[in-house]
Model the fold of this input.
Amino acid sequence: MKCCLVKWIIASTQPQDKGEREGGEGGSDSELELSTVRHQPEGLDQLQAQTKFTRKELQSLYRGFKNECPSGMVDEETFKTIYSQFFPQGDATTYAHFLFNAFDMDRNGSIRFEDFVIGLSVLLRGSVTEKLNWAFNLYDINKDGYVTKEEMLEIMKAIYDMMGRYTYPCVRDEAPSEHVDKFFQKMDKNRDGVVTIEEFIETCQKDENIMNSMQLFENVI
Done:
C-alpha cells in the first residue's frame, strides 16, 4: 500500500511500535491489535466485508488513524497538512480540498474512519471500474452527477500546481487546459457540454492514453 494517505497513517504507528519492540514487550503488538478489536468489534467485521483489506491491515490502519486523529474524525485542514508534507515544492491546498470532498461523502466537513478506509480500499485495490467511478466522483466537484470541462480543469490545475515542479521537462502554464480539452472532446460523446459517468468510464477504458494519464491521478492519492 503506497499512497500518501497510507504512508501518513503507517508513519504514525512506527515510532510507537519501534519503542515497544526495543522495550522487549514481546506481545505488545498483538495486545494493541486485540485492544483495537475489542474497541470496535462489529465495525471491524463490517469493514472487512466492505473493503479488500485484511483484518490485520484494518487494525493497523485504525491504530494509526486514532493516533493521528484521536477524535475519530479527519478534517480538511488535516488533509492539507498531509499533502503539503508530501509535496513541499508545490501548492497542494486546492487538490487536498477536492480530495477531501471526495472522501467526505455526506458533506459534513469531516471524514470518519469507515469512510476513509472504504475510499482507500477502492483506490488501492478496487477494479478499474471502481477506481474510475471514484475518479468521476472527484472530478464531479458539485456532485450533480455530471462533469463539466470547468470542473475537470479545476482538478487538473490542482494536480499540476501540486506536482508541476516535479515534472521534467517543466510543465507549461497552458498544459492543464490543453490536457482537459483533449480529454473532454473524447469523453463528451453527444456534445452536450457535460460528461456522464457512463461516458467517462467507457472513454477511459477504451483509450490507452487516458488510462495512462489516470496513473498520474493514482500517484497523488
Residues 15-41 have pLDDT under 50 and may be disordered.
